[in-house]
Design goal:
The chain has 263 residues and is α/β, with parallel strands linked by helices. It has two domains: 94 residues, Elongation Factor Tu (Ef-tu), domain 3 (Beta Barrel); 149 residues, Rossmann fold (3-Layer(aba) Sandwich). The chain is built from five helices and 16 strands. A seven-stranded antiparallel beta sheet has the order 4-3-7-1-2-6-5. Strands 11-10-9-8-12-13-16 form a seven-stranded mixed beta sheet, with helices on both faces. A hairpin with a 5-residue loop joins strand 5 and strand 6. Helix 4 packs parallel to helix 5. The radius of gyration is 18 Å and the shape is globular. The structure holds flavin-adenine dinucleotide.
Length: 263
């Protein structure tokens, strides 16, 4: 893991209280695997001592820039929202264990995978989608948000990732299907044949998907969120119960086999 001071190349609003920050990163970006995160030191550190974890959302083609999509929920994310181009952000990363891709040799050629992202959790699936597409998988990507104004992960995905079909839903029906990501995922699972399922979002969504996947005997990985302090596995502040005992989201995860998690 590396500590890197990264110049801010852009910080744009995508939706109310959701932004995308683009950073120059010549050390961390080349090493990032899909599903890993960076631990961000918040400027004005005297006030906020602990770093904040954010999934790496995008890496540019030259692998010298990375982006994060952040939702403003408290003081740390508010500070990030206020940062300007030319200022710097101190990152620790790449952190954690990312997605373990399905074995192309054991899955059907041209097989389909299902990705389900709820709210801001969808950020953790973007790099994965691109990687699965290069391996030749067809992708059904369910993206859900509370309402149309908060849908930030639907623009251009189908163009950017060949072989990807987007399925949008909102809680209030203001865009796409009215209802939950789990409704759409259930419908897709009952009609289609999938090699693999990956999901990130609110815990009740992940738990419901885990139960659906278990019934279908479908391999399923989840990316979990937990409040964390050190981000490197030392403080045990982010442990979650699993069938193998307590596991650290920051170092053993954030990606886990859904069947191993005690929901
Ligand atoms: C591996 C990982 C990847 C993440 N990726 C992203 C991402 O790509 N984009 C994004 O917007 N957020 C992401 N998060 C959540 C993000 O880390 C928190 O929203 C952030 O730390 C909040 O900091 P804050 O100072 O703004 O809020 P705080 O003032 O610390 O807290 C404000 C509120 O947010 C809740 N909260 C704080 N941290 C977390 C957390 N880790 N999980 C759940 N709730 C939390 C608190 O309970 C509180 O209610 C991720 C978390 C993890 C563990």
């Amino acid at each position: 893991m590396i500590v890197e001071k990264c110049a801010i190349l852009g910080n744009q609003s995508l939706a109310p209280n959701i932004g995308l920050i683009r950073l120059e990163s010549r050390c961390i970006a080349p090493l990032v695997a899909a599903g890993q995160f960076v631990h961000v030191q918040i400027p004005a550190a005297g006030e906020l001592m602990l770093r904040r974890p954010f999934s790496v959302y995008e890496i540019d083609d030259s692998r010298t820039q990375l982006s994060i999509v952040y939702q403003v929920v408290g003081r740390g994310s508010k500070h990030i929202q206020e940062l300007k181009v030319g200022e710097e952000l101190n990152l620790l990363g790449p952190c954690g264990q990312g997605w373990r891709l399905p074995d192309v040799h054991q899955t059907q050629a041209g097989g389909r995978v299902l990705l389900v992202g709820g709210g801001i959790g969808t950020a953790a699936l973007q790099l994965l989608a691109a990687q699965l597409a290069t391996l030749g998988y067809g992708i059904d990507f369910v993206v859900g948000a509370a309402t149309a104004r908060l849908l930030v992960f639907n623009t251009g995905l189908e163009v950017l990732v060949p072989g990807l079909k987007l399925h949008v839903c909102t809680d209030d029906g203001s865009a796409g299907h009215r209802g939950l990501t789990t409704d759409l995922a259930e419908a897709l699972l009952s009609h289609g044949s999938y090699e693999w399922l990956a999901s990130c979002g609110p815990e009740p969504m992940l738990a419901a998907l885990a139960s659906l996947a278990k019934k279908k005997r479908l391999a399923h990985q989840v990316s979990l969120e937990a409040r964390m302090a050190c981000g490197v596995g030392a403080c045990l502040g982010c442990v979650v119960p699993t069938l193998d005992g307590q596991r650290r989201v920051c170092a053993d995860g954030p990606v886990f086999d859904a069947e191993a998690v005690v929901w």
